[in-house]
Amino acid sequence: SSTLYVFVLLSILATIAHSQGEYLARGESGLGLSVAGVAGGGFTGGGAAAGYSFGGVVDVGASLTNASYNSQSARGTFVPSVTYHFLKQEDGPSSIDVGLSASYFTGATEGPSLEFNFGRNLAAEGSSTILQPVFGIGWITNSLFNKGSNWVTIGASVGKWMSAGALGFVCTPATNFTPDGVQAEITLTTIL
């Protein structure tokens, strides 16, 4: 049904709430602000998020998303989240950033969500450039529909820090694969 598809789309959009810590080194804190849009298979959606990373390890944030199917009325969801980055890229020569996010959806979608995120900045060490493949696996259960769903996100982040400790911009185009279809997503993030 279109309601279930919108539920999956809102779930994917809400993951933007915990995106800032993956770009920060251990010990660096920062405020992340993001906007995202998703389209595909008759779906359109958008969202905005804010979050704070404590030492680049623990992120707390919240997002507000809206999605519609074939121009039907949009449905909104509010999602608070917390992310723990238990492995950081600088922890070893072959390490990647690995995080686990826990969220709770309220609004058009109700229920808990878990997501694993993996990434590694491929730019030269000390460079102000960000070139980071992104891979995510997510799962959500929805009390409104008494149904669970999962998704896989594959993409790449590209961006640039303006200078050490200053404003940075990151653009992340990605593709989301769900049991209900495929969507194209783009996220813009700035970290203060």
Describe this structure in words.
By secondary structure, the protein is mainly β. The chain has 1 helix and 10 strands, in the order H-E-E-E-E-E-E-E-E-E-E. The protein has one helix at 2-14; strands at residues 30-40, 43-54, 58-69, 75-87, 97-107, 111-119, 129-142, 147-161, 168-178, 181-191. A 10-stranded antiparallel barrel has the order 1-2-3-4-5-6-7-8-9-10. A hairpin with a 2-residue loop joins strand 1 (30-40) and strand 2. The protein is globular, with a radius of gyration of 16 Å. The mean pLDDT is 78.
Outline the secondary-structure elements:
Elements: H1 2-14, E1 30-40, E2 43-54, E3 58-69, E4 75-87, E5 97-107, E6 111-119, E7 129-142, E8 147-161, E9 168-178, E10 181-191
Antiparallel strand pairs: 1-2, 1-10, 2-3, 3-4, 4-5, 5-6, 6-7, 7-8, 8-9, 9-10
Fraction of residues in H or I helices: under 10%
Biggest sheet strand order reads: 1-2-3-4-5-6-7-8-9-10
- Global Rg: 16 Å
Shape: globular
Q: Report strand %.
A: over 45%
Low-confidence residue ranges: none
Average predicted local confidence, pLDDT? 78
Number of strands: 10
Q: Tell me the major beta sheet.
A: 10 strands, antiparallel, barrel
| Distance from first to last alpha carbon | 40 Å
The helix-and-strand class reads: mainly beta
Element pattern in H and E: HEEEEEEEEEE
Compute the number of helices: 1
